[in-house]
Design brief:
The protein is an alpha/beta fold and about 220 residues long. It is about 30% helix and about 25% strand.
C-alpha cells in the first residue's frame, strides 16, 4: 500500500498538473491550488481536492490547513516574485518539505536561499519523475522510458539483503527485470548474475511496466 502522505501542488500548469495527476493516480491525497479557474476545472478529476485561490495570501493558505500537508510543491510559472513569496510562506507556516520549481538558475538560487528543500527545473525534471521521487522514500532515481515503461533505481530493503536475485525472482513474481546492481562502493554489475547476493547499501536498477514498478516500489516485493 502507498504511504499516507498528503501533497499540495500550487500552480496547475503543465508541470504541476502532471505532478498532481501522477501522485493522485498512485493513491496519495493531493490538493491542487491555482488562481486560474480554467486550470482548476481541468484538474478536478486528477486531484483529491482542487481550489481556485491566491496562494500568495497567507490567510488563504492558513484557511486551507496548509501546515497539515507533508509536502508542498510550488509550481508557479514564470512569476518569480509569486513563487518566492509562496515558498517563503509555506516554510513559515511549517510545511515539512517544500519543493519549488525554478525558471532560471538565479531563481533557483533565491528559492534555496529562502529555504526551499529542493529546487527542480522543468527542463530536467519531468513532473511524473519528480512525483515518484517524492512518493517513495526508497527511490533513488526514476526515468520514464515510454508512457508505459520505466526504469527505477531502488535501495535494497532489509528483507532483500542476503538473498540472491534468483531467490528474489522479481521477473516471475512482479514482471520486473533487474538490469544492473550498484554496490555501496559504486561498483556496478551489468547485468548482475542470478546468484549474486544482495548486500546492505545496494541499489537495484529495475526495468518494468509503470504499473509493476509502482507496485514494487510501494512494498509489494514478495
Amino acid at each position: 500500500m502507498a504511504q499516507e502522505k498528503e501533497f499540495v501542488v500550487i500552480g496547475l500548469g503543465r508541470f504541476g498538473a502532471s505532478l498532481a495527476s501522477t501522485l493522485y493516480e498512485m493513491g496519495y491525497g493531493v490538493l491542487g491550488i491555482d488562481c486560474s479557474e480554467d486550470k482548476v476545472n481541468r484538474c478536478k478529476e486528477s486531484c483529491t481536492h482542487v481550489v481556485q485561490a491566491d496562494a500568495t495570501d497567507e490567510a488563504t493558505l492558513k484557511s486551507l490547513g496548509i501546515s497539515n500537508f507533508d509536502v508542498a510543491i510550488v509550481s508557479i510559472g514564470h512569476e518569480m516574485q509569486a513563487s518566492i513569496l509562496v515558498t517563503l510562506l509555506l516554510k513559515e507556516l511549517g510545511v515539512p518539505k517544500v519543493i519549488a520549481k525554478a525558471s532560471s538558475e538565479v531563481h533557483g538560487k533565491v528559492l534555496k536561499r529562502i529555504g526551499a528543500d529542493r529546487v527542480v527545473f522543468p527542463e530536467r525534471d519531468m513532473g511524473a519523475r519528480v512525483a515518484n521521487h517524492l512518493a517513495a522514500d526508497n527511490i533513488v532515481d526514476y526515468l520514464e522510458i515510454t508512457p508505459d515503461v520505466s526504469i527505477v533505481e531502488i535501495n535494497a530493503s532489509p528483507d532483500m539483503v542476503g538473498k540472491t536475485l534468483r531467490q528474489l525472482d522479481v521477473r516471475a513474481k512482479q514482471g520486473i527485470n533487474i538490469v544492473a546492481l550498484r554496490r555501496a562502493n559504486q561498483e556496478v554489475l551489468v547485468p548482475p548474475g542470478p546468484d549474486e547476493p544482495i548486500k546492505t547499501g545496494d541499489v537495484l536498477v529495475a526495468l518494468g511496466s509503470n504499473a509493476d514498478v509502482r507496485r514494487w516500489q510501494n512494498g509489494d516485493k514478495a
